[in-house]
Amino acid sequence: MDSLCIVTTGGTIDKIYFDDKSDFQVGEPQIGRILQELGVAFRFSVIPILRKDSLHINDADRELLRATVAAQPDQHVLITHGTDSMVETAKVLKSVEGKIIVLTGALNPARFRGSDAEFNIGTAVGAVQSLPPGVYIAMNGRIWDPFKVRKNVEANRFESL
């Protein structure tokens, strides 16, 4: 892998807590900071196109993401995305050919101690370097086919259909 293109859409991975508002809002993308702190041995670029909770991502947003990914010269693409509609977005990205696209996110904000963000990002980085062209989801220590996985909201994890 010469370089990795990272496209961010928001989601829990980038959420920050506002004490004065007593709620969470999607903040700046965290993945660039995480990869720099980990000292990765590859070049990467970060393209922030959305800053939304995935429950608010619509068809126009998915088309913008698909077009953005298709327009990148890099073959290896990692997308950070909220977990609630990640599967729907991955299915839309199936139409992009000749790229290895891996979507990942977090069930807890990256800024929180004990967040699954770094683990999921690490899994996604390994996957994007080793899989054949296609679209995949990297969550809970596994690589999933978007057509064979769902988020189990009650258990707060991804599982096979």
UniProtKB/TrEMBL annotation:
The lineage of its organism: Bacteria, Pseudomonadati, Pseudomonadota, Gammaproteobacteria, Lysobacterales. GO terms for molecular function: asparaginase activity. Keywords: Hydrolase. Pfam families: Asparaginase. InterPro entries: Asp/glu_Ase-like_sf, Asparaginase/glutaminase-like, L-asparaginase_N, L-asparaginase_N_sf. Residues 4-152 form the L-asparaginase N-terminal domain. Its EC number is 3.5.1.1. The keyword Transcription regulation does not apply. It comes from Aquilutibacter rugosus. This is Asparaginase domain-containing protein. It comes from the Bacteria. The keyword Secreted does not apply.
